[in-house]
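User: Here's a protein and a ligand (adenosine-5'-diphosphate). What would the complex look like?
Assistant: Let me lay out the input and then the predicted complex.
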Amino acid sequence: MNLPGACGSVTSLQKPQPSGYSSDGVQCNTVRLTSIPLSMLRILTLETTCDETAAAVVTDSLEVLGSVVVSQDSLHQKFGGVVPEIASRAHLENLLPVIDETLRRAGISLTNLDAIAVATMPGLAGSLLVGLIAAKTLALVLQKPLIAVNHLQAHIYACKVAFKAELPDGGPFPCVGLIVSGGHTSLYRCNGAIDFTLLGGTIDDAAGEAFDKVAAMLGLPYPGGPSIQKAAATGNPKAYSFPRSLLHEDRLAFSFSGLKTAVRYHLFGVGDSKPGSSGAGGVSLIPPVSESEVSDIAASFQEAAVDCLVGKSVQALKQIGLSTLCVGGGVAANARFRKKLEDSAHKNDFRLYMAPPALCTDNAVMGAIAVERYQAGLFEPLDLDVSPGLVR
Ligand code: ADP
Ligand code: MG
């Protein structure tokens, strides 16, 4: 494949600039025409790692020209979790319309793109493959470079995109990065945008997985994180003392399985867990529990999970000797977590960059990390494969 050199080939093209984006930079329904700087690089990024089909067009100055995210929540809701086969089939149906709409919002055509980027790791194999095949096809047909995006690094890069105005060119690096989602709860030493060293992660469930499962136990709808947050808003976080596993150990690791089981025992009693009797689709078969008790359990669970996430992040900063924390992933959208992390940043005197909520759950804007790879000349051959494996 011929890789283009610098992107100076555009001469007098009129480039639509999004007006009316939301503060998170994701939505941009209207476009207005302005001149394009001659050197602007435009990359189409694709995201199909799990259950969101997303595309974005981003520039080398980390502007978001267009972005679309189609969630599959309604398809998976009745199963109480993501069904991989359904997810990949939905990506197949959604991806081309999502790309078309993204380009329409960006006001450009495929031929105006300088590179195609796609998240290739980690994620569900079938879901990742849909994005990869689309990206390879576009790269081949358009004769543009193909760029591989590490979805976990991209979650942290969302902070650089969101805070680009106040960050130095190099971004927030070096920093500690906390990625907290449905599949991952991991701490990294982020030496640079694409240079991460794993410090530690969960030894069992991811935090988002615990939110989803506890919500199912409480008869609350999927995805569980937003449901727990909503129920917790009227609950007492001190009503029940659920465990904060590993919090007081030096080890940089998380464990949410015991917390999840503690909620289950609280609801069903020890040894009477009636497997399969609760959960899917928000259909509650739990013993009669009042709405206020559901709120108290949700708030107490949320508080315990948040304490672990905040506590371990602070521990990581101290152990590694860094004073900047970046946070991304779906659970980072949690309002209680954000508040407690902000309080901790003031108390412990560290710089905190949290991806805005719309850039926490899966999206393609964070695929702007492809700019870093483009600038480093890191392009992929067309036999590129996906790397689904969980990183823990
Ligand atoms: P993935 O789909 O790769 O697991 P996402 O980054 O899309 O990752 O995150 C989805 C997870 O985030 C789900 O487990 C969901 O319950 C959780 N989540 C989303 N919003 C919230 C919230 N407000 N509070 C807690 N968890 C949340
Ligand atoms: Mg998701």
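Summary: The chain has two domains: 14-168+361-375, 175-358.
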